[in-house]
Design a protein that fits this description.
The protein is mainly alpha-helical and 68 residues long. The protein has one domain. 82% of the residues lie in helices and 6% in strands. The protein has a two-stranded antiparallel sheet. Helix 1 packs antiparallel against helix 3. The longest helix has 33 residues. It is elongated and about 55 Å long. It starts with a helix and ends with a helix. The mean pLDDT is 90.
Length: 68
Amino acid sequence: MVEKSREEYWRRNIKLVTLCMIIWFIVSFGFGIILVHPLNAIHLGGYKLGFWFAQQGSMYIFVALIFF
């Protein structure tokens, strides 16, 4: 029984870490670097959205991931 619960724990743990890494990659590289030009067509609070994600938005998402 202990071995089965240990395997279940690690399976769920790996899923959670993988999900967090995917979100981290999409926000930091996807929105901040790769998709910056299409996102710059949208303005948020007077700033281009691509710039906002690169400077502020990614930090907010990373803090939210910490508490997830």
